[in-house]
């Protein structure tokens, strides 16, 4: 058929790129498939890792299914004759493999597959080497530093337990912990502890228990097993980082002594076995009761000794004279107060007597010097009324005002009024003349 019979535009009229297509001018599906195939086949060969789920050889070619180790992602893969003959017998379904693949699109069905050019199983040595490399990386980040370790509670109220479903490890921890402390409570999360889903399930349970405020400590436990079953799931980077980020103390109880998983390095406390974890989680109840009884006995003996010493001290105090006749203290003090009072009175009387004598002597001196004393001896004080001017001692005129004592007879004018004070009473007179002395 030509383009006209199939109602398709000629190739020269098709849009050059996908962004140029429209509803009126689309690409034919076969054209799109060819473009997609060409684009996909430009992807270079890539090494990938996964689990080989199916492996079937038909007509010399190997048809396989590869599944991601952690996520629900899978691809169909094919190995043509030469490659299939090289890997047949080397790999088997369920094994962990690395493969060099190229993407291929089958145009007619649009099915994408991986053309395998090389494939080999991942050996245990390779996996352990990866674990050792991861250990160095996480140690350099400080995730294993001793200062990050948190102490376990002395007696946890509730213990979070992450372990396998109906596992012996869970039974051992529950039985031995409750044998040591009957009141121990558990919050159990049963998860896969081996296989590709184990790290993801353990991290989810760890996050859930860490968010529970009633959980005081978390135990991640698994019994013994093959090296790859014990070390690899519990050395997963996601699990190690999750343990480093939680706030609840974590105990690693993985029963494998030869090779320690990285969980042992990042956990706050490591127990060599699940049974040994019980000894770390709780104290021995019988031993604690015995220790409490001994402590109570020592405290009782100490209190009795203290009471005995205090009783002896009270007896010695009671036997002292001051306690036998306590009124002696009051009597002695009363005598002292009476003596002090007598001395105070005598001192006061002596002071008063001296003060009285001083007052009398002062009064006598004042009396002897007073004008009245002079008048009593027969003298008189003559005063004249201030009339007229007089001269002062320097010869300057001085005006008299009021009554003034006469000191100079020459200053008294004739017939001047005078007032004479005697010992008792006063006299008035007038000056007749001045006599010369």
Summary of the model, kept short:
It contains 13 helices and 16 strands. With about 425 residues, the chain is α/β, with parallel strands linked by helices.
Defining traits:
437 residues; alpha/beta; OB fold (Dihydrolipoamide Acetyltransferase, E2P); Rossmann fold; 5-stranded parallel beta sheet; 16 strands; 22% strand
What separation lies between the terminal Cα atoms?
190 Å
What is the number of beta strands?
16
Number of helices: 13
Estimate the mean pLDDT confidence: 85
State the fourth-level CATH superfamily of the domain at 128-283. Succinyl-CoA synthetase domains
Low-confidence stretches: 1-6
Q: Which CATH class of the domain at 128-283?
A: Alpha Beta
Q: For the report, how would you describe the main beta sheet?
A: 5 strands, mixed, barrel
CATH architecture label name of the domain at 128-283: 3-Layer(aba) Sandwich
**What fraction of the residues are assigned to beta strands by DSSP?**
15-25%
SSE topology string: HEEEHEEHEHEHEHHEHEHHHHHEEEEEE
Kindly state the percentage of residues in helix: 40-55%
CATH topology of the domain at 128-283: Rossmann fold
Shape: elongated
Provide the structure class. alpha/beta
Spatial ordering of strands, largest sheet: 1-2-3-5-4
Rg, rounded, reads: 63 Å
